[in-house]
Each structure stands twice: as C-alpha cells, then as structure tokens.
Design goal:
By secondary structure, the protein is mainly alpha-helical. It contains 4 helices and 2 strands, in the order αααββα.
C-alpha cells in the first residue's frame, strides 16, 4: 500500500515538474520563435526545418529545469554517481529532443495547419505542434528516467 501511494505521489510530482518544465520550454519557445527570426533570417526555415534554433534553445531550457526539479522533488538518487546520473539524464534528454524535434516538424508541416481558438487565447500551429510533441515525449521520458537513470 505504501509503495502504491509512493508511486502515485511520484507520478504527481513528475507531472508537476513536467508541467513547470513544459511551461519554461513553451514560454521560451514563444519568445525565441518571435525574436530569433528577426536576428537570423534562416531561423524560420532552414532546409525545410522550421524554427531549429528556437526549438533547440527552448528544449534545452526545459531539460535543465526538468533535471533540477526531478532530483529535488521527483526521484530518489539511484546507484549512479551525480556525474554519471547527470550524463545519463542529458543523454536521454538529447535523444528525447531529437524525437521531439522530429514530432514537431511532422505536426507543424502535416498535421496542424490552422490556429486553435481557446476563446481567451489563440494557439498558432507552431505552438500546438510544440505542445503535442512535449506531451508525447513526456511519457517516454518518465519511463526511461525512472527505470534507467534513477533506478526506481
């Protein structure tokens, strides 16, 4: 029973940490995707890749936020040293980033073509694509981080 409650608590904290990290990622993506194209002409479209620098920069901000929230609130330390644990976390996050960037491109180029009106805010196709990619990759991240990095 205690293990079940601990697992639910861990999932809740993972969702909260993920939500905060996603807000950092989405917020920074919004800022970067507006500012970077003004400074770098190829940012909007680099050989068919939309917003590459904005995506990488915002994803990196979300990863670092998620790492610190994960070690402070979500997972207990595993059998790895702090350096190795951080290396594994970054490696998994890097691979997840590649998946996320790919999903973003697929969603942006083929799935979400119109704005989505939420009455109080309108989501652009790039924002819907970013949010969708984050949600799909979050499930993968939790499983890998729990089982491999934090041994939990």
């Amino acid at each position: 029973m205690i293990k079940l409650l601990r697992n639910k608590k861990q999932v809740i904290f993972f969702l909260l940490a993920g939500t905060l990290s996603a807000l950092v990622e989405i917020g920074s993506f919004k800022i970067f995707s507006v500012q970077f194209p003004r400074m770098i002409s190829w940012e909007y479209n680099l050989y068919g890749i939309r917003y590459p620098l904005s995506n990488i920069s915002s994803t990196s901000a979300g990863i670092f936020c998620n790492y610190f929230l994960s070690i402070w609130f979500v997972f207990e330390r595993g059998k790895h040293s702090k350096k190795r644990e951080f290396f594994y976390f970054i490696l998994v996050s890097f691979l997840s980033t590649l998946v996320s960037l790919t999903l973003f491109q697929v969603f942006y180029n083929f799935v979400f073509e119109d704005n989505f009106d939420l009455i109080f805010y309108t989501l652009s196709p790039e924002m819907i694509s970013k949010i969708s990619a984050i949600l799909l990759v979050a499930v993968l991240n939790y499983s890998v981080k729990k089982r491999i990095i934090f041994n939990g």
